[in-house]
Amino acid sequence: MKFHKTKELKGELSVPGDKSISHRAVMFGSLALGTTEVTNFLQGADCLSTIDCFRRLGIEIKNGPEKITIHGKGLDGLSAPSSILDAGNSGTTTRLISGILAAQPFESVLTGDDSIKSRPMRRIMEPLTMMGADIVSLNGNDCAPLRITGKKLHGIHYRSKVASAQVKSAILLAGLYADTVTEVTEPVISRNHSEIMLGTFGAKVWTKGTTAFIEPRPSLKGAKINVPGDISSAAYFIAAGLVVPGSDILIKNVGINPTRDGILKVAKAMGGNIELLNVNHVGEPTADLHVTYSRLHGITIEGDIIPTLIDELPVIAVMAAAAQGTTVIKDAAELKVKESNRIDVMVEYLSSMGCCITGTEDGMIIEGGRPLTGSIIDPHADHRIAMSFAIASLVAEGETEILNSDIVSISYPSFYSDLRNLYG
Ligand code: S3P
């Protein structure tokens, strides 16, 4: 798809439902007894992979236009899959479902696309094996495909080296089936959607500092879940509104959970005008975000804030390229093991657009303020890279072409039409 520099972006939009919360609603609804109804579910390819896996495990899931309905069968209601489980491109599906499969009285094989088959799974294999699970990487490279043979599990206290909600959630889900309380301590707190939603379904989950605890064998009951708009999807429009001169955008009903809101803090620290309207603190907090064009300046982004904006760092790099001065991103080595190596890909293609950017071991250094020019971008089959460069193209002279641009359907199928609607 081809893009050109644009005049101001104006109008309002609602971004689709949160990806992390949508996955969890399907998974936890499947393990709960009774009916779960989910509204504003993200119809992205990743979440559809989660639905497909749970259907193969014997759960009836109706994906209707207004809501999805899950007929959960309780903690012991899954049945042996008739075929290989395919998580597609979804790391969340792969890692979270592994925690569930580790405790089932049957064997499963879990695979995904080429990206999933190269992403690190040792991080979940290690703690789940400590709990008693039998997980084998079939290619012997600590990646999918995984053969998971369910076992009786015991509670552990796991100290994770990485701040990862996928790792934490896999262990907590296995902890539902353990013999004693399970604890996970993270170096820095990661997104806490599992803790919140497991509580909604009736699990006993609590936290102390950066440790999450779960009691085994709760009776989970079906619930109604309304998924807030995804702040990771809103991030592209936050960035667009801030960097395209004259812009004025209202993004409605965005999740602003404090374990996810680092983009708001960073945008403000860079000098961005973002106003939070209609703030609602019931359940997962939400707000409407009013974003207007701002003269951004570079900052240093490091430490505890990183897990709260890990998926937004590619588009933050675009904001940094448009800002005056230097932005330093540190403590973000996790970027190398996402859907692509997001440090290498951002450095390669922002450089190709004329930005002065250097990759480091755990981040990037961006000298902002140079004019950008159009380029040909290969997003390396990474949805967030494609959307980040669509935003960069809006301030670049000439034409930008994004190859394989429909990869955005992983997390935001209507991204290009939502963007076009703001052109005026
Ligand atoms: C997610 C956690 C994060 C994030 C991913 C979704 C989740 O991954 O990058 O897009 O839903 O738990 P990590 O847990 O690997 O940091």
Automatic annotation (TrEMBL):
Binding positions (3-phosphoshikimate): K19, S20, R24, S164, Q166, D311, K338
Pfam families: EPSP_synthase (PF00275)
Entries under CDD domains matching the protein: EPSP_synthase
GO molecular function: 3-phosphoshikimate 1-carboxyvinyltransferase activity
Keyword Cell inner membrane in record: no
Gene name as annotated: aroA
Name of the protein in its database record: 3-phosphoshikimate 1-carboxyvinyltransferase
Subcellular location field: Cytoplasm
Cellular component GO terms, alphabetical: cytoplasm
Main location per the UniProt record: cytoplasm
Entry EC number(s): 2.5.1.19
HAMAP family: EPSP_synth
Reactions mediated catalytically: 3-phosphoshikimate + phosphoenolpyruvate = 5-O-(1-carboxyvinyl)-3-phosphoshikimate + phosphate
